[in-house]
Every structure is written in C-alpha cells, then in structure tokens.
Design goal:
Elements lengths: L1 E3 L13 E4 L7 H17 L3 E7 L2 H5 L11 H10 L4 E6 L2 H4 L3 H12 L4 E5 L12 H11 L2 E5 L12 H9 L3 H8 L4 E7 L4 H4 L5 E4 L9 E9 L2 H4 L4 E10 L10 E6 L10 E12 L6 H24 L1
Parallel strand pairs: 1-4, 2-3, 2-5, 3-4, 5-6
Antiparallel strand pairs: 7-8, 7-12, 8-11, 9-10, 9-12, 10-11
Length: 320
C-alpha cells in the first residue's frame, strides 16, 4: 500500500481510484465490510482502491480541550487498511485553514483535480467542507457533472442489531469491557508505543515492567488487564509479530504517588531488554480497578494474584 501525505502531483497509477472517505478510527468490522464492498467495486471497474483520511482527527482540531479519544494511531490504522486490501492511502493535513475550504472546492480541487476519482464511497451521513456545507446530495450532484459515481453506505449492524460504531467501542473500553470492544473491532483493542525508561520500581519487587505512554490514545477504564504484548519485528525485518503473555496496570499508580496515566506491562517468563522498542499491547480482559494499597508488600502480593488470574484468562483465550 502506498501512503501519500498530500493529494497533488500524484503518480498516474494513484489516480482514478475508487476513493473511500472517512476517519476510520479503529478500522472496526463496519469499516471492514464497507472496505470490502469498495474493493469489489474497484475490481469491477478495473480501478485501484484508495482511502482518503485526515490527520490530525478533525475533532482534536475543533475541540482540543477534550480528553484523548483515538482508538488507533495513524501507523496502526495504516496497517489495518493495508490488510483490508487498500492500494493507496491519502492522508491530508487537517487544520482550521483546511476546514475553511468550501465543499464545492474540495470536490473540484481534490477529488476531481488531484485524485481524478473514478467513484467515491462515503457514509450515509457524510458532511464536508466549510461549516459542513456539503453532504451526500451535493456530492452526487457534482459527481454527475464531473464524471464520478457516488455510493452512500448505510450503517452496518451486528447480528444483534447493534451498530458497528467507533463511539460504542470507546464506551465499552471506558467501562472496562475490552472483550465487547473486540467483538466490534474484529480483533482485541491495542495500544502501540515505544518502551520508555520508568522509575524501575517494579524490578525491586520482582515484577519488572515495560512502560508505555498513552499519547493521543483513548483512556480506557483504569485498572489491571490481562494482555498480549507484541514485539513487532515485522515492521523493520519482515517477520511476524511475536506475542507475549502478560499483565498490565493502566493508571496513575496511587500506591507510589504517581499522577500521570501510564501503561505498565509485566511480561511473563521474559527477561530481555526491550527499551526503545515499539510494543503493541492488546487488552484481552479487565481484571480489577486500580486501587491504592497500604504499602509495597501489599501491592506485591496483589500483583502476584493478578498474574495468576491473567495467566488463567490468557490460557482460556488461547484454547478457545
């Protein structure tokens, strides 16, 4: 998959695509079904399939004071889109200047002039342009004049009548239901980040941890999780991700006076040096809320219990 951080001066083979527009945060099952439909259409037309998305997410531009909410980083999103069969990913920089672009100008300059879109696929409620002045009706009207087709996709429902929605996935995670989130995502939700130097307190109590900052990721329920942590040599070395079982505390560490929210991962039966590596941490199940203990001995005893419970959970997961 080719990734472009611009829409102008594209190579010929990146133009004339079936272009799917959206934020695709999470690339959940609903997104995957939409992309599969777009892939079939692209194949029928003999055209490449592309996704047009925006960074940073428009919500973080217009509402910067809101808490972090991202389900996927751009890197993780790109991996998921590639797996869905996307040929080209166009990532346009979004800021207040871009938001002033009228809807008609967006169509004429970007969709027609830059991308030469053969067909455009959007959600049924898609709005775009300055003050959300453009909608599906305008897109279809301009498409008829400019020579591209338009498909507006209805919301995708689960077998239980629940909408596949990034917002619902966020709610499940905030309420400590990672397994429910995984059902809608089609995979466990994960946090990806570089392993940072911590205070190394875990080593002193027999539970060394890999520390990862959360950045722009959503803050799920604070507490202890059974996790799978992936060392990702595939990014640099073309190998498969190595998944390791573990337990993680996601929180402020009140027993030792911590303040910032941090993800601390203890890997079972592992003693390697992974400082500076990128780690993918999948939250498999919620064990308990974070709490303050009377001292390090009480904390150590509880971590031992958490480890035992996490091992049981992960053993059941691997056998199911």
């Amino acid at each position: 998959m080719a990734i472009f951080r611009h829409s102008s001066d594209l190579p010929d083979d990146a133009r004339g695509a079936v272009v799917v527009i959206g934020n695709f945060d999470g690339v959940h099952r609903g997104h995957q079904l939409l992309l599969a439909d777009a892939r079939r259409l692209a194949d029928e037309l003999g055209a490449p399939m592309a996704v047009l998305t925006f960074e940073p997410h428009p919500r973080s531009v217009f509402l910067p004071e809101r808490p972090p909410f991202r389900l996927t980083s751009l890197r993780a999103k790109a991996h998921a889109l590639q797996e869905a069969g996307v040929d080209h990913l166009f990532v346009l920089h979004f800021d207040r200047s871009f938001a002033l672009k009228p809807a008609e100008t967006f169509v004429e300059e970007i969709l027609v002039g830059d991308l030469a879109a053969r067909h455009v696929v959007v959600g049924w409620d898609f709005c775009f342009g300055h003050k959300r002045g453009g909608n599906v009706a305008l897109l279809k009207s301009m498409g008829a004049k400019q020579g591209f087709g338009v498909t507006a996709v209805d919301p995708v429902m689960t077998g239980n009548g629940e909408v596949y929605s990034s917002s619902i996935i966020r709610d499940h995670l905030r309420e400590g239901r990672p397994a429910k989130a995984a059902e809608l995502l089609g995979r466990p939700w994960e946090i990806e980040g570089r392993v940072e130097e911590g205070d190394q307190r875990g080593r002193t109590i027999g539970f060394a941890t890999a520390n990862i900052g959360l950045g722009d990721y959503l803050r799920p329920a604070l507490g202890v999780y059974a996790v799978l942590a992936g060392r990702d040599p595939g990014v640099e070395h073309g190998e498969e991700t190595q998944w390791l079982a573990g337990v993680a505390n996601l929180g402020r560490r009140p027993t030792v006076g911590g303040e910032d929210v941090r993800l601390e991962v203890h890997l079972f039966d592992f003693a390697g040096d992974i400082y500076g590596e990128t780690l993918r941490v999948r939250l498999m199940d919620f064990i308990r809320p974070e709490k303050k203990f009377d001292g390090l001995d009480a904390l150590k005893a509880q971590i031992a219990l958490d480890c035992g419970q996490a091992r049981e959970i992960l053993a059941q997961t691997s056998s199911s």
